[in-house]
Design goal:
The protein has about 90 residues and is an alpha+beta fold. It contains 2 helices and 4 strands. The chain has a single domain, classed as Nuclear Transport Factor 2, Chain: A (Roll).
Length: about 90
């Protein structure tokens, strides 16, 4: 049980670090948030917010079927580096 708790704790700490590694881009090379919003809207997302989190862009949106989406994107390439969805 103790090992399971330690593993969960290590993953919680390492998660943001892993995303930050994928987004290790100087801010001078970042594309504007509007470019990400346009890209996502072209993919059918209804964007609710875009913020900066651990050196990445984090977008929250709703898809065409009403499903909540959350994605993490490299600010230079606008490629997805992680995603989460919520059916609730």
């Amino acid at each position: 049980m103790k090992a399971l708790i330690l593993t969960a704790l290590a993953m919680a700490i390492a998660g943001p670090a892993l995303a930050a590694d994928k987004c290790d881009v100087p801010t001078a090379q970042w594309q504007p948030r509007e470019a990400l919003q346009k890209k996502l809207e072209g993919e059918g997302w209804k964007v609710r917010s875009i913020k900066t989190e651990n050196g990445c862009y984090e977008a929250k949106a709703i898809d065409a079927s009403g499903k909540k989406l959350e994605g993490v994107f490299n600010p230079k390439t606008l490629e997805s580096v992680g995603a989460d969805s919520d059916d609730g």
